[in-house]
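User: For a reading group we're discussing how well predicted structures match intuition. Take DNA-directed DNA polymerase. Before you show the prediction, I'll give you the sequence so everyone sees exactly what went in.
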Amino acid sequence: MTPPARRHLIAALERTADLLDILGEEEFRARAYRGASRSLEGLEEETPELLAREFSGIPKVGKGIAAELSEFARTGSFAPLDAAAAQLPPGLLELLDVRGLGPKKIRSLWLSGIDSLERLREAAQGGELAALKGFGAKSAAGILENVEFLLEARTRQRLDAGLHAAEALVSRLADLDARVSGDVRRGLDTVRVARVTVTGTPEAVTERLSGVVEELERVPERPVLAGRLDGVPVEVAFAPEEARGTLDLLMGGSGAYRQELIDAAQARGLELRSRGLLRGGQVVPAPTEADVARHLGVTLRPAEYREPEHDGLWPGLPAPEALLQVSDLRGTIHTHSLWSDGAASIADMAAEATRLGHEYLGTADHSRAAHYANGLSVERLRAQLKEVRELQRAGLPIVAGSEVDILDDGSLDFPDDVLAELDYVVASVHSNFTLDAARQTERLVRAASHPLVTVLGHPTGRLLLRRPGYALDVDAVLGACEAAGTVVEINANAARLDLDWRVALRWRDRLRWAVNTDAHVPAGLQDARYGVAVARKAGLTPAHVVNTLDREGFLGFVAAQRASR
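Assistant: Thanks. Here is the predicted 3D structure of DNA-directed DNA polymerase, as structure tokens, for the group to look at:
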């Protein structure tokens, strides 16, 4: 097996220390694992090199922990973490994901009988949590907000999981004219169910999905079969050909959009139901969505624009054929390599980018403050720059950049003379997410206004279904980007999709944008499709997006941007 990356070793050491604190074990044991974690963070060697010497000679890594790490590197299992987790209720471990709760507070909750997110929500809502020592009303309110976020996240899937499930269903049901529908078709950042529509009968669907979809069963009083595919909730809606257009429309829009169509049908003496468009109880043939729209006398909205946020904007937004497509992206300018926490060389990342049809790859490895991600020192950055220039001379289409940490006060992690050596700069926040809104806003405004910052990376710091973005005045930050001419990133990693499409929609014509994969492995370069889905919901065209420029055009854009400041 491939040994786990050093960052996974570090995370396992930290989690082990947390669990030992929750268990109330001797403090020296937790300190030992945290000390070992800090030591591994300061190394530049990766797991294979560390394993070759059995983790010996590392400060604060004694023989016992070294042996445990060696076993972890060989088997993928960290024995002390497994042993600690086995002593705790499974639901209690979920509390580690709640912002504002550390191991000591979680132990206090456990001893008070609070051992799951559901029980914590109940305690926060009923005043029990506020009455506990060390908490209080303000703390309880903040914890309740974070618990609600995490519980809601349980009911949803990331877009990539939903899309993969929907595409798998479409492949199995291709002869029934299967089409992606629902949240996935509309390009929502998270989805409740991966939904597909077909022309056919429930028997035909069952025959093709038997043994493929788990728990497949008919939904009462709906033309839908539901189940799970690789853990993702799925639905297949079916209709005869004359009712297919109605089915696609009702399954392919928000609740508000569906109600708008139902009201339009009633105004014309019709009924719009999943079993068809009805007049006097009889089905009006409408095989396509366009047929339904014609009968209703409405303009058919593209799937991307079927949200309440688009009301009043459509049909003034660009037509679907004018919106950004993956094929419009000529460069990808936020990627990582073995130099920091990526898993491939720059040359291999560039080769994959070229294979996918991009004309150039931008390097953006982490800066020195991101020690947990093997961030580059000034010396290592210059060594990387030397490699990049050599690869350029060898004919590889590469652009030299860096993802530079925004420090607590809004300054950047590299000095200006170093930044000036780069072809472009992505500036991002990777720490101190809990600053109050005013300080966080000031921090990002200062960074976005820096004369050498090309792109503001993942602007709100959210991780979908894991943590909300940090508190800030996003409009103030984007206003600073507008004033300085700083490009705003739509991070295409399906775990982020940051900036949110709703915000991008409001600012679409006031800013320049970059759709970046933030890829850490070659396969991650294909995540561009998710960022493009966000851009399309925001009504962005190729002209809005700087990495639709060719390499020389992009470098010219950066030069003009710097000259104007």
